[in-house]
Automatic annotation (TrEMBL):
It comes from Rhizophagus irregularis (strain DAOM 197198w) (Glomus intraradices). InterPro entries: DNA/RNA_pol_sf (IPR043502), RT_dom (IPR000477). Residues 1-190 form the Reverse transcriptase domain. This is Reverse transcriptase domain-containing protein. Pfam families: RVT_1 (PF00078). It comes from the Eukaryota.
Length: 389
């Protein structure tokens, strides 16, 4: 969902209501509003200042407390959406049978219907009607606060959806549906069919663009390495939050930058790449090593993060366990699973396992079956089936 000039749309009346809603002291509320609105602004136009005008609405972009004021202002909408999760939301769940000799089945579930970062919001639902109900709630909030939404910039990702009805909001039809190039959210592209090629192509284009610019510049090999490590590596690491790549794919992505640096330092193309990656020589950061660092941090955060993230991680681990047809924890079985499980967590664990990074906490307890292994039985199904299965 797209909002025009979000910070400028914050009205003093709604901001006051938002602060009163969370029981902030009246003196503090008056202080915030007095600082924010009892003042005048001037604008620089053609190297000159305009006449001053009184500030009546909006909060300043870049002001230290602007993000928290925006959250206070926007929180009622998010809470309203959260209240209707049961009626309009997407449920991720797993059924875990702790003992195959007993009928007890534990169901772990999590329902999500909205995620937001500042003014960027994504609605998630099971059906067309449910998403329209949530959109009506959002737009009623926007109308109440004179916020201008731009439905023309809305994007839809339909996953396994046979419904072909058009989505029309305030008389405008949403055109961007299941874009082949992916749908962008906070700088990362997602596809309806989880197509890894879109992510890899995005990173490839970024690297080729960087190499093309560096080829035209009269700079040294050390300068190229510095720009790569400080400019490109953070951008690539950000993109790696949406995809897990193999070692061969990482080598293909690194090939252009390796060639560029060898050319800049007048070295033969046959020079081993490890010379470039050695921290005591050039210290070029390798994408695959970068991914390993990123995945290890992300997986540990998922396993030990806040309640929502931790619950989703647990559900995904149980789903992976069921898909692998094993009573063992998926993290114990991961070395025997093929890459491209179509799940970020599954592929991440496979890559980490290839570098001897294991994620399993059963060694911390005397009970090996605690929380993740299935009790009962003595023979694994793969011991019965032939190798081709």
């Amino acid at each position: 969902m797209d909002i025009s000039k979000a910070y400028d749309s914050v009205s003093s009346r709604s901001l006051r209501k938002g602060m009163e809603r969370i029981k902030l002291p009246e003196q503090w509320i008056n202080l915030v509003l007095d600082i924010s609105y009892n003042r005048f602004n001037r604008v620089i136009v053609n190297n000159d200042l305009t006449e001053k005008y009184k500030v009546e609405d909006g909060i300043d972009q870049g002001e230290v407390w602007s993000p928290i004021l925006w959250r206070i202002f926007y929180d009622p909408l998010l809470c309203k959406l959260d209240d209707m999760r049961e009626q309009a939301g997407y449920e991720i769940k797993s059924e875990f049978k702790e003992n195959i000799t007993k009928d007890k089945v534990t169901i772990h579930s999590m329902i999500i219907n909205a995620i937001a970062f500042m003014d960027d919001m994504t609605l998630i639902s099971r059906s067309h009607d449910q998403i329209m109900d949530m959109l009506e709630i959002c737009h009623s909030f926007y109308r109440l606060n004179d916020i201008k939404a731009n439905p023309k910039k809305y994007e839809i990702i339909r996953i396994n959806n046979v419904e072909k009805r058009d989505m029309i909001i305030e008389g405008q039809k949403i055109e961007k549906i299941n874009s082949k190039n992916g749908n962008r959210f906070l700088g990362i592209f997602f596809t309806y069919n989880n197509n890894r090629a879109v992510h890899i192509k995005k990173m490839k284009d970024m690297i080729e663009g960087f190499v093309k610019i560096m080829n035209r510049k009269i700079i040294t090999d050390k300068q190229v390495c510095k720009l790569w490590n400080t400019n490109m590596i953070p951008a690539l690491e950000y993109q790696l939050q949406g995809v897990v790549i193999t070692e061969n794919e990482a080598k293909q992505l690194m090939a252009p930058i390796n060639t560029l640096i060898k050319h800049k330092c007048k070295m033969p193309s046959s020079l081993p790449n490890c010379v470039l990656y050695d921290k005591d020589i050039y210290g070029v950061k390798d994408i695959y090593s970068l991914q390993f660092e990123s995945l290890s941090k992300n997986i540990m955060y998922m396993a030990n993060g806040n309640e929502i993230v931790r619950s989703i991680f647990k559900i995904q681990m149980e789903q992976l366990q069921q898909e692998a047809w094993t009573p063992l924890c998926f993290a114990e079985k991961v070395s025997q699973v093929k890459f491209s499980t179509k799940r970020f967590v599954g592929d991440a664990l496979i890559v980490l396992d290839s570098k001897k990074f294991h994620l399993c906490d059963h060694e911390n307890y005397n009970d090996l079956f605690r929380n993740h292994r299935i009790r009962g039985g003595y023979i694994l199904i793969e011991e019965v089936l032939e190798e081709e299965f």
